[in-house]
Description:
Number of strands: 0
Number of helices: 8
Strand content: under 5%
Order of helices and strands: HHHHHHHH
Low-confidence stretches: none
Structural class: mainly alpha
Largest sheet: none
Oligomer: single chain
Mean pLDDT: 87
Helix content: over 70%
Shape: elongated
Amino acid sequence: MLRFDVMTKQLKSFFIEIGELSLFTSRFFKETFKQPFELKELLQQCYQIGNRSLLLVSITGFIIGLVLTLQTRPTLMEFGAVSWMPSMVSISIVREIGPIITALVCAGKIGSGISAELGSMRVTEQIDAMEVSGINPFKYLVVTRILAVTFMLPLLIIIADTIALFGSFLVENAKGNVSFVLFFNQVLDALKFGDVVPATIKSFFFGAAIGLIGCFKGYNCKKGTAGVGKATNTAVVTASLLLFIIDFIAVFVTDIFFEL
């Protein structure tokens, strides 16, 4: 009986949070198109988010290219299909591996940072002070950060994909003496419109999800330093789970579209 009560309480809190997140999302869309537009703060957040994540995303992309090529090459050599390596690696990275892994890294880096920043402002009553002084904190803090992550994540993913392909080339050049021109000619020949566009579109949804969850958890943070830590932790976990759900939906819709 006690276990049933605990499950009921957890289920109730889950649906309450879903409702609060829905209201938070609807408020974001309403505030986005209201004046004044915080363009200066938006540009500053774009710079900070991109600058803070660039090195980590670059290293991650480079390692992805190296590991994927090193792991796949022996199998292709057994079947005498090592010449397909540039095509296979490029499609795998651009379609799926690059976007989802980069988004997960950014969920840990950007999502936690936004949640901790807004949570600290909530705990120290800076957000309340902004409301008293006549500033709309939701528009200034939340809208700008969500839009910044939405705009910057596709760029970070493109950079990560490019560096991953370069890492793959280095392995191919060392193992098979493949030239730069030959490798990237095969890469460009393999990539089609249907590979690049869906991956780019879903990266915008990835960015929106990371920014939305990070801002939601931080903006509604409970009082105390423990609340900031809990908000940061749950923001990363929730954003990561949401990324997988969005990715599944994107792959499912893309598959239906191209089957038609």
